Amino acid sequence: MQKIKINGGKRLSGKVTVSGAKNSVVALIPATILANDIVTLEGVPDISDVASLVEIMEIMGAVIERDVDGGKLVIDTRPVVSKPLPYGKINSLRASYYFNGALLARFGQATVGLPGGCDLGPRPIDLHIKAFEALGAEMSYQEEAMHLEKTGDQLNGASIYMDVVSVGATINTMLAAAAADGVTIIENAAREPEIIDVATLLNNMGAKVRGAGTDIIRITGTQDFHGASHTVIPDRIEAGTYLALAAAMGDGIVVDNVIYEHLEAFVAKLEEMGVRMTIREDSIEVHKSDNLKSVNIKAVPYPGFATDLQQPITPLLLLAEGKGWIMDTIYEKRVNHVPELARMGAEITAVGDRIHYGAPNKLTGNQVHATDLRAGACLVVAGAIASGSTVISNIEFILRGYDNIIEKMTALGADIQIIEED
Ligand SMILES: CC(=O)N[C@H]1[C@@H](OP(=O)(O)OP(=O)(O)OC[C@H]2O[C@@H](n3ccc(=O)[nH]c3=O)[C@H](O)[C@@H]2O)O[C@H](CO)[C@@H](O)[C@@H]1O
Ligand SMILES: C=C(OP(=O)(O)O)C(=O)O
After folding, report:
1. With a threshold of 0.95, does the pTM exceed it?
2. Are 309 and 282 in contact (CB under 8 A)?
3. Which of 19, 26, 88, 94 has the most crowded Cβ, counting Cβ within 10 A?
4. Where are the domains of the chain?
């Protein structure tokens, strides 16, 4: 079994370049199905979610050239057919739900197994289904897969109010509505930068999506799609993870390829803690920071503090002076990193809807488990801080979302490697 071993306590310095955003690229790849043509994606991160999506696309007939090191994907979706995708890689990642919207848009039907992804407590997809039904599709289960089929000649535009702000449901509705007859209005839409990125590609492929990035998105359907080229936005969650690491262990680290506006809430929290930073046009330099103050964190939809950064920032909070709490309003049960940090000596507990921590803590290396992607990132940061050696198992979760994490951390001076161990 592969594990990550970190000999912690080393001060870090240098530059780390952020890769393309996981949560964009996992939607952009299925979105290329609408083009029925050749789409080039640049800035594609080398993560296992991308490899899984490429495999699924190839099963459906897409012809794909991938330059892993160059971060480039050239996808020809002309040969794609809407074949049932009940099992396999489909169940290994969350974003496989985007095949529902994309296949429904192009073929009027889709049979896709239930999505996997990180176990963060309940992750229903009722809003996706309601939106597809509002657009004129019927849903049934075939074996263990969800089968969607248009009931008329075409999907029809509709007014859709999202009861809960949902990234996945907003993007899936955009995908299906892009090819519907007439106008769709999504109200209470999610506003994450990844939604703007997907809308940009869709528009470059011929779609008419307006208002992405606000809570009202208006889509005028078309059947007139074509090829396009697109560069994936930088990964704000990867950036935030390295900013937290830099604040904890850096003697001056530049986090490059960053869109600061995507990280405002996160950077504001670092500033509140007393982290010193210089913000430049596309990079953030984190200076050596001492005497950090504890803060409380409430994870909420964008533009607020991101749930995906709640776990990676926790080890930094553990170094600050005083007590504090973290509350995740999106995933109340996103607390699996807590017992692992406690095994490393942290004063931290999850009670009710909050994580309570006392600080400062002296973390000590231990054998720990990455229960999900960002819990894994949290343990990598904690391992870099801790004295002694930390061995992290279940690293496949981490590799779902962090491009070349061993190489990037090593370049900063961390003593980190992948080992084989039972
Ligand atoms: C691949 C991807 O982009 N994953 C991200 C996406 O996940 P994902 O798109 O699955 O998350 P959502 O934004 O949909 O979830 C937000 C909240 O809405 C609820 N909900 C969602 C859909 C639904 O049909 N019904 C419902 O009740 C969820 O349980 C959750 O409480 O956004 C999350 C919230 O920013 C991030 O943590 C994930 O990294
Ligand atoms: C929860 C995450 O991913 P997914 O939705 O793909 O499981 C994440 O990126 O933190």
Report:
1. yes
2. no
3. 26
4. 2-18+235-420, 22-231
